[in-house]
Write a structure and sequence with these properties.
The protein has 15 helices and 21 strands. It has about 450 residues and is an alpha/beta fold. It folds into three domains: about 170 residues, FAD/NAD(P)-binding domain, CATH 3.50.50; about 130 residues, Polyamine Oxidase, Chain A, domain 2 (Alpha-Beta Complex); about 90 residues, Guanine Nucleotide Dissociation Inhibitor, domain 1 (Orthogonal Bundle). The strands form six sheets. The chain has a seven-stranded mixed β-sheet with strand order 7-6-16-17-18-15-19. A hairpin with a 2-residue loop joins strand 6 and strand 7. Helix 2 packs parallel to helix 10, helix 2 runs parallel beside helix 15 and helix 5 packs across helix 8. The chain starts with 5 loop residues before the first helix and ends with a helix. It binds flavin-adenine dinucleotide (FAD). Flavin-adenine dinucleotide binds next to helix 2, strand 15 and helix 15. The site of flavin-adenine dinucleotide has 42 residues, from helix 2, strand 15 and helix 15.
Length: about 450
Amino acid sequence: MKKLGILLSACLSCVVQADEKPSAIVVGAGLAGLTAAYELEQQGVDVTVLEAQQRIGGRVHTLYNVFEQGQYAEAGGELLDGIEVHTQVHAYAQKFKLDFEEVGYDYDTAYFIDGKRVPESELEVLIGAKAMADYDRFWEELEALAKLVPNPAQLDQAPNAKQLDQQSVAQWLDGLNLAPKARTLAEHHIRGEYAEPTQMSLLFLAHQAKVYEGVDDDQIEIYRIAGGNIKLPKALAAGLKKPVLLNHAVTEIRHTDKGVDVIAAGKAFHADYAVVTVPAKVLSQIRFVPQLSAPLSNAAALGYGSHTKVMLQYSKRFWLDAELNGDTVADLPLGWTWEATDQQQGEAGILTVYTSGRFADGDRYKTDAELIAAAREQVAQVYPGADALFLRAETQAWLRQPWQQGGYSAYGPGDVTRFWQAWRQPQGRLIWAGEHTADRYVGYLEGAIRSGQRAAKQLSL
Ligand SMILES: Cc1cc2nc3c(=O)[nH]c(=O)nc-3n(C[C@H](O)[C@H](O)[C@H](O)COP(=O)(O)OP(=O)(O)OC[C@H]3O[C@@H](n4cnc5c(N)ncnc54)[C@H](O)[C@@H]3O)c2cc1C
């Protein structure tokens, strides 16, 4: 076995013999798990990655071979920020020689409210001057929330943290006293970006405002990885010495001060440490012996936004004919649309329909056919005649995915107080990672990557 250098002089020396390589089991091969595994190997750790599904990537899931004309779409995490914001996504992309594609067109977004569609430049005509002024005020107030959080990593140490955490975003919106149409648009934004306003902590929203304080709009959600986001997890996995073990759902982790014994797919694995990256909603599917202490014993209580994507391929990009970019903000359940194929070849185009919050909660019980039919019908309301151009569709309701059971974390009222620090404190030989454990960019690819890096560092401390 390879001799360990500096690592052994640290805490691992208490358990690992001088000629042994320390070992870790990483649970989950999403971006957090793959980053942790990659970085641990760089530190000289012997890593085994166990993944429940028969594919890697988790919530990064590019759908190839579904649509016509060789087109593809992102069923999960899609849009990436500029290099000074999502620094770690860019760093790994550079390391693995992956390119970015810039998204979008130089056309307007469409707004569809009360049955009428206008380009963004005419939004004020549609909703009236008072609602427009109130909607602008909402954005200013949202930015101002950043002031409540001096340090985004020490969120629960902010002045009045407990009080702000107990308050829901809906209560904060009540206090803004917005005109009804401005309130509709404000709720629409919060729901689509994070979660239903009634189910989201104001302190968590303030945290997100702080993380994005001073970042220009033209640096936000501007890229995808060229050829599909799945290239990033694939590159990380290809950089590992041992292949990820697919179809290895972890069912039990026994942990002592000497190491961890993990059961997956009926087999036993032993290591010095486990890095557990499964989403909080499904952590309880793993039996921990001894049991996890609070609050992680009740991790499923952490707030998550519900988000469903329905990707509709049409034979023609009809929105461009109307000099619109495919982005739609609608007061229909569908929520948002945007084009998935703006940088792809072909006459056809894929419109992603993104339904969130209370409008997506019930999707857990719907069939794919029902979700697709509803999305088609609503797109046809916004763009009359569109359905005649329909080719095919695919859908991903993340609430229904057995290994996620939710979209991405959006801390609910009281959650910051309960969970914020807990995710970054190891419980003995167990270390936590995943977007929900990040201290910046929670709910993004960037957060998942940073959490994996942090977990790898924690193991070597
Ligand atoms: C609809 C949607 C849209 C999004 N849009 C964006 C976006 O535009 N931009 C952005 O940056 N981010 C976006 N995100 C968020 C981003 O995709 C996630 O933050 C990130 O991919 C999460 O990575 P993760 O490793 O933490 O979790 P996951 O990717 O969920 O990885 C966890 C892994 O653990 C596995 N697992 C679960 N249980 C077990 C078990 N018992 N045993 C073994 N393995 C297990 C799962 O199968 C999975 O592979 C979006 C997410 C969704 C769902």
